[in-house]
Automatic annotation (TrEMBL):
GO terms for molecular function: 2-acylglycerol O-acyltransferase activity; diacylglycerol O-acyltransferase activity. Pfam families: DAGAT. Its main location: endoplasmic reticulum. Keywords: Acyltransferase, Endoplasmic reticulum, Lipid biosynthesis, Lipid metabolism, Membrane, Transferase, Transmembrane, Transmembrane helix. This is Monoacylglycerol O-acyltransferase 2. GO terms for biological process: diacylglycerol biosynthetic process; response to yeast; triglyceride biosynthetic process.
Length: 252
């Protein structure tokens, strides 16, 4: 899977294994290929780049109800994306835990069109609050190329298709993007993703002081700092991965 796209993990700063971390992964994309390959396998060298850290990718609890598939994803280090599961990992006093959250979640997959850089983050503060409650440092992560591996049927806000997708996502908890790419033996149409490179860039940590009951203004300040750091990470590295210098992140 690493070599198919290919996928590369890019380190920009050291992460001290004496601390726990919450890594915010952006964007979700359709496949979340960068998150799975980098943080659920050792294929891209996570243990060597960040020695002493163990990564845990959060996934919708729905998938843990499926027999056999549940055991497979747990072997890869995935845990349910509920507060109890994430808190269990972050309570480790010795540190060394890195919880990876695709912050935009299933709704963001509906905006995963090639050439777009929409990040569903403007009102997402749950992971910020969790970081403060546990004193876990925040690390912004941007995966260049994540939205390029599939084409998606146009579904702008206000269309009947988008209304239906949003409605189903609210009811089922999972989004249903109408995606397509290539086939196994032909390149014109199919459900196999395109072979386009994905570069997952891990930013520098944002130090977070533990506050069991953080105030609203503290949450807002840390949330704004996180968005600023993510924007800075994107702007600093976009030129290396084929993104025009005039393109900026669009927080939704």
């Amino acid at each position: 899977m690493r070599d198919y796209f290919p996928i590369k993990l890019v380190k920009t700063a050291d992460l001290d294994p004496r601390h726990n971390y919450i890594l915010g992964f952006h964007p979700h994309g359709v496949l979340v290929a960068g998150a799975f390959t980098n943080f659920c396998t050792d294929a891209t060298g996570f243990p060597q780049l960040f020695p002493g850290l163990t990564s845990y990718l959060l996934m919708l609890p729905l998938w843990f109800r499926a027999p056999f598939f549940r055991d497979y994803i747990m072997c890869a280090g995935l845990i349910p994306s509920d507060k109890e599961s994430a808190s269990y990992v972050l309570r480790k006093k010795k540190g060394g835990s890195a919880v990876v959250i695709a912050v935009g979640g299933a709704p963001e997959a509906l905006d995963a069109h090639p050439g777009t850089f929409n990040v569903l983050l403007a009102n997402k503060k749950g992971f910020i609050k969790m970081a403060m409650e546990h004193g876990a440092h925040l690390v912004p992560v941007f995966s260049f190329g994540e939205n390029e591996v599939y084409d998606q049927v146009e579904n702008p806000k206000g269309t009947w298709l988008r209304w239906t997708q949003d409605r189903l996502q609210t009811i089922m908890g999972v989004s249903l993007p109408l995606f397509h790419a290539r086939g196994i033996f032909q390149y014109s149409f199919g459900l196999m993703p395109y072979r386009r490179p994905i570069y997952t860039v891990v930013g520098r940590p944002i130090k977070v002081e533990k506050k069991e009951k953080p105030r609203g203004e503290d949450l807002d300040a840390l949330h704004q700092l996180y968005m600023d750091e993510l924007s800075s990470l994107f702007d600093k590295h976009k030129g290396n991965y084929g993104v025009d210098k005039d393109v900026h992140l669009n927080f939704v």
